[in-house]
Amino acid sequence: MNKRDHQILQIAIPSIVSNITVPLLGMIDVAIVGHMGSAVYIGAVAVGSMIFNLVYWLFGFLRMGSSGLTSQALGRRDMAEVVRLLVSSVAIALGIALLFIVLQTPMKWLMFWFIGPTADVAPFASTYFDIVIWGAPAMLGLYSLSGWFIGMQNTRIPMFISIMQNIVNILASLTLVYGFGLKIEGVAMGTVIAQYAGFIVAVVLLMRYYGRLSRYFQRKRLFRHIGVFFKVNRDIFLRTLCLVAVNLFFTSAGARSGAVILSVNTVLMQLYLFFSYFMDGFAYAGEALGGKTFGARNTIALRETLQRLWMWASIVTGVYTLVYIFGGEWLVRLLTDEPQVREAAHAFIWWAWLIPAAGVMAFIWDGVFVGITATRGMLVSSFVAALLFFSTYYVLCGFIGNHALWLAQVVYLVTRGVVQTVWFRRLGILSL
């Protein structure tokens, strides 16, 4: 294993661990309310979690924008810019969070109108929302801090925070629900406590390991190049809208085909998510190392980084493809014991075999493009891919049904990767 492989794995492995722990926050809440004696509590948490997952996903640019710009500044050894990016990105995140809190009533109305919870679930979902919205400063602030840590080539701190948050969430929620007799309020408060615990620990670790950088802080530089920051984040935000539109449509199209097909799609999509947890780790490595070598104008190191990233990505893709071909049916049985769903999944399982190879380019290029802040390429690729996704589905859904939805998903993933490959080559970065 050469130096570049070591650097990639040093960033990728903690990121993979972090990714695996992320779904646990929602699963813990569902597990607790699942023993409260009424299905409305499960529905309330499901609706509330969906709202905040969607909102926070849209504002994921706070992490990605911070990561790419910070890694480039680090590559240039411009520590004043590194500090400026930290302060300005956290300030912007807290400003957006404050706006969420001020506008929480119309925001809740809009999201409830969009999701449409049933009359028995809505009051409990409203209670959950009213409490969890107060965790917005911690969540968005942590997005900016996590992006900055990744830009500084440090994914161990985000990993530690993710694990710690899950532990705090379990302890706080169990204590509030079973110790103090709270129900949906206890689960919501446990989530907020975990969010602020993560944010506070992140600030403490920031001061512990990077406090010495405070001497580079220059107040007059605080909002210098802020236009670049917003340009990068605007492209990422619009790109995320494309991703959200595709993912929401994928779910709604499956739902229109009936409960069995919806369940099949949901189960098979878990196989895609399992793959994404690993590939995102290497995408983060692309962000950190790609941005640093690009910022240093070291094209030799950037080329070597890309070569090793593609090598690791090919290995992971090959392993997942073999696992899904030979163990896909077993994984479906592990995820559901419903006979109808298992039987129906048999006709669609082979689409899961194609997902790793279809999606690998998009994952790696997303990371690299964030690192080199080629965010316009991310936006264009996602927009073109989304157009092809909807076109493929509507042209073929009347002929091949749910297979058209999965074909559209494969076309969407491949298109993103192909367009970004062409875009990167047109940038001519490796020939500089």
Automatic annotation (TrEMBL):
Signal peptide (from-to): none
Alphabetized GO MF terms: antiporter activity; xenobiotic transmembrane transporter activity
One cellular-component annotation, GO: plasma membrane
Stored CDD domains: MATE_DinF_like (cd13136)
TM segment ranges: 12-33, 39-62, 82-103, 131-151, 163-181, 193-211, 236-255, 267-289, 309-327, 347-365, 377-401
UniProt keyword Transmembrane, yes or no: yes
Location relative to the cell: Membrane
Pfam family, one: MatE
UniProt topology in membrane: Multi-pass membrane protein
Keyword Magnesium: no
Main localization (coarse): membrane
Source organism superkingdom: Bacteria
Keywords: Membrane, Transmembrane, Transmembrane helix
PANTHER family: PROTEIN DETOXIFICATION 44, CHLOROPLASTIC, PROTEIN DETOXIFICATION 44, CHLOROPLASTIC-RELATED
Family: Belongs to the multi antimicrobial extrusion (MATE) (TC 2.A.66.1) family.
Protein name (database record): Multidrug resistance protein, MATE family
Natural source organism: Xylanibacter ruminicola
